[in-house]
Design goal:
This protein has 164 residues and is mostly beta strands. It has one helix and nine strands; from the N terminus they run E-E-E-E-E-E-E-E-E-H.
């Protein structure tokens, strides 16, 4: 997609009612090197650039212990995505269309993004990670240990992390 308003042949939109039934707290902001959807990777890479998860007050104390894990799940709001497509034509499939719920496209009714990232470091209110695939200044919704790669650091690293 070149612009947020462009439709590919075969794509279908619907009228969307204003949101009314949920409230989210953005707990921070994601800082990445990408300012354009065209430049943003389709999927993050563990060898990708270091990105920053800047956590807002009052959520900073919730970072305690985050450095115990090697991989994290990052949940974010794709704030520049369309929300009205129900049928899409994936970029790599010239003739086929698919329903939005059968794709990992950022264009969806509730544009939530998720990435499994590799923990790099914790610096004050900022978590450094590798493996993101979102635009700079993307709102951060949540951060949690990865459920599939739930791998605490070694006991020696844990003892050093809490100062004992």
């Amino acid at each position: 997609m070149i612009a947020d308003t462009d439709l590919r042949p075969g794509e279908v939109t619907v009228d969307v009612a204003p949101p009314r039934d949920a409230a989210l707290y953005f707990i921070g902001r994601i800082r990445t090197p990408w300012t354009s959807r065209l430049d943003t990777p389709r999927q993050g890479s563990p060898e990708g650039p270091v990105c920053r998860l800047e956590i807002f007050d009052p959520w900073v104390p919730a970072l305690k212990g985050i450095d115990f894990y090697t991989h994290l799940e990052v949940i974010y709001w794709l704030h520049r995505s369309r929300r009205d497509l129900v049928i899409q034509r994936p970029k790599h499939e010239e003739e086929k269309t698919r329903g939005t719920f059968s794709l990992r496209s950022p264009v969806r009714p509730n544009p939530l993004g998720t990435s499994t990232v590799r923990f790099v470091a914790l610096e004050g209110n900022t978590v450094l990670v590798r493996g993101l695939d979102c635009l700079d200044e993307t709102p951060l919704i949540d951060l949690k240990p990865d459920r599939c790669v739930f791998s605490p650091l070694s006991q020696q690293q844990l003892q050093g992390a809490d100062g004992t």
